[in-house]
Write a structure and sequence with these properties.
The protein has 184 residues and is α/β, with parallel strands linked by helices. Helix content is 35%, strand content 29%. Bound molecules: manganese (II) ion.
Length: 184
């Protein structure tokens, strides 16, 4: 379990995340923003994470962005050394269809367009602070709620796969700390 406390002039966040959820302990999320709570519960359920969030903020934009930063930063500590590393998912939600692909191997990068700037920013901030590459592709969809929710579900399912303990064959950990010879 990783706990993070993040306080700025704009937001106050206390967040706990663990890579394995406890079946009889549903996510406890209180941010004061119903849609953000809904998306955090969804992300935790689909990714199989244990998650507790207590947050307050001055503006919705600051709250959503800072919770994403805190979640990515904390979850980064929970990535197993021998993680499967890659994951992908294709999720339909009524008329919406969204695909996500993730690499949790320490290459922060975001590619994606959502019909909500706020939640596009949420997934970007989450991925970059997690040290993950995340691609989200909206294949189709008319209802913004469905498209955003399908994107969060697809990200969660992809993450569940990527965070699984594997044989570490795709891990570059141990190979990344190269010692450079000083040149005279
Ligand atoms: Mn919904």
């Amino acid at each position: 379990m990783t706990r993070i406390r993040r306080e700025t002039r704009e937001t106050r966040i206390l967040l706990e995340v663990s890579r394995t959820s406890v079946a009889d302990a549903p996510p406890e999320i209180r941010t004061g923003d119903d849609f953000l709570d809904h998306m955090l519960v969804t992300l935790a359920r689909y990714a199989g994470l244990g998650l507790t969030v207590e947050a307050t903020g001055d503006l919705r934009h600051h709250l959503v962005e800072d919770v994403a930063i805190a979640l990515g930063t904390a979850l980064r500590e929970e990535i197993p050394a021998r993680a499967e590393r890659f994951g992908s998912a294709l999720v339909p939600m009524d008329e919406a269809l969204v695909q996500a692909a993730i690499d949790v191997g320490g290459r922060p990068y975001w590619v994606g367009r959502l019909p909500s700037n706020l939640y596009e920013h949420f997934l970007q901030s989450f991925a970059v602070n997690l040290g993950a590459t995340l691609h989200v592709r909206v294949i189709r969809g008319r209802d913004r709620h469905h498209v955003v929710e399908a994107a969060v579900k697809a990200t969660g399912l992809a993450l569940r796969q990527a965070l699984r303990e594997g044989d570490g064959v795709f891990s570059t950990k141990g190979a990344v700390s190269l010692t450079l010879d000083e040149e005279s």
